[in-house]
């Protein structure tokens, strides 16, 4: 193993794995540093519900072998209503998926260094030139990419992404067997991915059931430490308490049992990102604050950020002078806003409004979705202000005003 590379990537999740995969395919010398041991990977980091859609499967050539179940529908639930929409998708076995990314990159020559905990950047002349890991070990590269998620040791040290981390999202997921996927009074979740808006279960957030085949499913809860959570939270409840409360009160879990060893936890932060690059450096994936957590499809966003980071690095390194200056790598920021999270401000504003609404408003929203054309919902989900406005009711004006007040004060 050498200690000098074209690109160093800290973190072997979907973003780091895809960046390594693309760069190795272009014959760059790439080294990926991963905290977990090779034998355990990816146990502790297996944090994603891993739901995705055909566009992502096709864009990144994800093989069927890492899919737990192909789904036909997306279902939205409120406390007293549900909305079905035909939209094919796939629930991935996240561990298999991450190992596939490793295998793909290694096959093209990327080096993975496991048991390598990145701690800080190596600096020369005020610029990052490498990373320090496992105490005093160092490795160097023309470009360094931080894909370590919320820990973001490199991005923090370089003051990239405006990492205030004010609104933390906390999630937990179990896998169950013995599920009843279509009891009376509920929508049929067979071969479906379901998201539920219900402050009784996930105050200021959402819960989910993703069918993984037979009578099994991924089941989880996520809440964000936002105004909706502060207003609706149960005193003393932890994220584990909410998931237990849900599984004890919902008939779909009456005969269900947790599958041993299938428990995943994770966290993220919800805020608008600032700049995401500087001299010799880019921050990708969940290191960039999570955007639009309900609709955003995290795997797709992470992999797209890895891909545009790889494209930016390729552009910089093929320059006759190997120009990796901040001005050259700022192309990544531009591509992120164009291809990874277009209209991010509009979509994040809509998401904040959504989590402030009441359970009664969630019931009305789902009633409206039965009447609205799919095109309008797609436009609102894509960040169209006009489409969002058309979905508002008079009672939403107070939510709009409070969200705008907090938004602009921030």
Automatic annotation (TrEMBL):
Protein name: Putative thiazole biosynthetic enzyme
Pfam family, one: FAD_oxidored
Top-level taxon in the UniProt lineage: Archaea
UniProt keyword Heme, yes or no: no
Source organism per UniProt: Haloferax massiliensis
One example of a Gene Ontology biological process annotation: phospholipid biosynthetic process
SUPFAM superfamilies assigned to the protein according to its UniProt record, in alphabetical order: FAD/NAD(P)-binding domain
Domain Digeranylgeranylglycerophospholipid reductase catalytic: start-end pairs: 191-244
PANTHER family (alphabetical): DIGERANYLGERANYLGLYCEROPHOSPHOLIPID REDUCTASE, GERANYLGERANYL DIPHOSPHATE REDUCTASE
InterPro entries: Dggglyphlred_Halo, FAD/NAD-bd_sf, Geranylgeranyl_reductase, GGR_cat
Key words of the record: FAD, Flavoprotein, Lipid biosynthesis, Lipid metabolism, Oxidoreductase, Phospholipid biosynthesis, Phospholipid metabolism
Presence of keyword Oxidoreductase: yes
GO MF annotation, one: oxidoreductase activity
